[in-house]
Design goal:
Blueprint: E1 13-18, H1 31-36, H2 50-73, E2 77-79, E3 89-91, E4 96-98, H3 105-108, E5 109-112, E6 115-118, H4 134-142, E7 146-149, E8 160-162, E9 167-169, E10 181-184, E11 187-191, H5 198-208, E12 213-217, E13 228-232, E14 235-239, E15 256-260, E16 284-287, E17 290-294, H6 298-306, E18 310-314, H7 319-322, E19 330-335
Parallel strand pairs: 1-2, 6-7, 11-12, 14-15, 17-18
Antiparallel strand pairs: 1-19, 3-4, 5-6, 8-9, 10-11, 13-14, 16-17
C-alpha cells in the first residue's frame, strides 16, 4: 500500500488531513491579502474582540469533531495537525506579516498521485502555514513517501499587480495555492488567477509532465472549489452564476454538468466575509456515491440526490467567516484509483 495515493476527488477515501482552528488569527490586510480578496480601494479592517474569535475557534473545532466522526464512520483515517502558534509577526528581508492559521491543508499542500508538494503560496500571511502539518508530513516521509516543496517565493511588492479592474500576479516566481488545481486522474487542470500564475503552472508541468497531462484554464479569480467541482467520472458541479457552458473547459463538455444557482447564505462572524455564499459548493466526496454537504444547502443536496449521490449533511458554521468549506479545510492523502484517463 502506498503511503500517499490520490489522483482525484472521488476515489474511495482512505486517509485525510483536516485543518485546525487552534491558533486562528486575523492578519493585517497587506498588499498580498488585499490582492487575493480583490480589495483595491481603501479598506480598514476592524479588530474583532477576543470573545468573537474564541467563539469562532470553538465552534469550528466542534464542527471538525463531527466531520471526523462522519469520516471515521466510513472507515477513513483522519489526521490533524499540531498547529504552531501564529500569534507572532514574521519578517523576511522584504516584508513583515502576521501569520494566519492552519485551517486549510488543501491550499498549502498538493497531492499529485504518490507525491506530496508544499505549494509556493502568494499570500505573505500564509508563508509558514504548511509547518503546522509537519508532524504528519515528516511521518509520511519516514515511511517512504515522496515529499517535496516548490521554490519558496520572495513576495516583493512588485509581485502584486492590478490592471484597473482585476488583481493578478507577476511572473517573478512560481506561485500557486494548491486549491487552484483540479485533479482528474492523469489530467491536471490549473487555474490562472490572482492565486496562481503561469510560472507556477510551468514549474508543475516541468516537474511532473512525465506523469500527468497539464492543462491551463481561467474559470474564476482565485480557487476553483467554489466554481467547479468534479464529483465522479462524467459528473461535475458548476457555479451557474460564474460559468456558462462555453466557459467550461472543453474536456468536460460531454460530461453531465450540474449547474447550481441557489446557495444559502450561512452568514459570517468577523467584520467582513473571507468567502462568498458560493462556499456552499465546497463539498467533500467520500467515494463516487457519497458526498458531504453543508447542512443548510438543501437545494444543493436535492440536486446531488437526483444525480444518484448519497448526501450527508453536516454543520460547518464558519465557512464564510474563514474562507473555507469541507473541501478547503481537508486534504485527501489516500484514495483508491490511479492515473486513469477520463476523456
Amino acid at each position: 500500500m502506498n503511503i500517499i495515493n490520490s489522483y482525484s476527488d472521488w476515489g474511495k477515501l482512505e486517509e485525510i488531513i483536516l485543518g485546525s482552528p487552534k491558533y486562528l488569527t486575523l492578519p493585517d490586510l497587506d498588499i498580498s491579502s488585499r490582492n487575493f480578496f480583490d480589495l483595491q480601494e481603501d479598506f480598514i479592517q476592524q479588530k474583532n474582540p477576543t470573545p468573537v474569535i474564541e467563539r469562532v475557534k470553538n465552534e469550528m473545532e466542534e464542527d471538525f469533531q463531527v466531520l471526523t466522526s462522519i469520516l471515521e464512520g466510513y472507515g477513513v483515517k483522519v489526521r490533524r495537525p499540531e498547529a504552531i502558534n501564529l500569534d507572532i509577526t514574521c519578517q523576511s528581508p522584504h516584508w513583515v506579516s502576521q501569520q494566519s492559521h492552519a485551517l486549510m491543508p488543501r491550499d498549502c499542500m498538493l497531492v499529485l498521485g504518490e507525491t506530496l508538494i508544499e505549494a509556493p503560496m502568494p499570500s505573505r500571511n500564509r508563508y509558514f502555514e504548511s509547518q503546522s502539518f509537519r508532524n504528519i508530513t515528516r511521518e509520511y516521509f519516514s515511511k517512504g513517501a515522496k515529499w517535496i516543496a516548490a521554490p519558496k517565493p520572495i513576495l516583493t511588492d512588485d509581485t502584486y499587480l492590478w490592471d484597473g479592474t482585476t488583481p493578478y500576479l507577476a511572473e517573478n516566481d512560481p506561485l500557486f495555492d494548491a486549491a487552484n488545481i483540479m485533479r482528474c486522474g492523469k489530467d491536471i487542470f490549473y487555474n490562472i488567477s490572482n492565486s496562481g500564475n503561469r510560472a507556477g503552472f510551468e514549474w508543475l508541468e516541468r516537474t511532473f509532465g512525465d506523469q500527468f497531462n497539464f492543462h491551463q484554464m481561467s474559470i474564476c479569480s482565485d480557487h476553483v472549489g467554489t466554481t467547479m467541482q468534479l464529483l465522479r467520472p462524467g459528473l461535475a458541479l458548476i457555479n451557474a452564476e460564474r460559468m456558462t457552458m462555453a466557459e467550461v473547459p472543453v474536456q468536460f463538455r460531454d460530461w453531465e454538468l450540474v449547474f447550481f444557482n441557489e446557495p444559502v447564505d450561512i452568514g459570517y462572524s468577523f467584520d467582513w466575509a473571507r468567502a462568498s455564499v458560493w462556499i456552499a459548493m465546497n463539498v467533500l466526496s467520500i467515494d463516487e456515491k457519497t458526498i458531504i454537504v453543508e447542512k443548510n444547502q438543501h437545494k444543493l443536496a436535492e440536486l446531488l440526490d437526483r444525480c444518484g449521490l448519497e448526501v450527508i449533511p453536516a454543520s460547518f458554521r464558519h465557512g464564510r467567516t474563514v474562507g473555507g468549506g469541507f473541501h478547503c479545510c481537508s486534504l485527501d492523502i489516500r484514495r483508491q484509483g490511479g492515473a486513469e484517463s477520463y476523456f
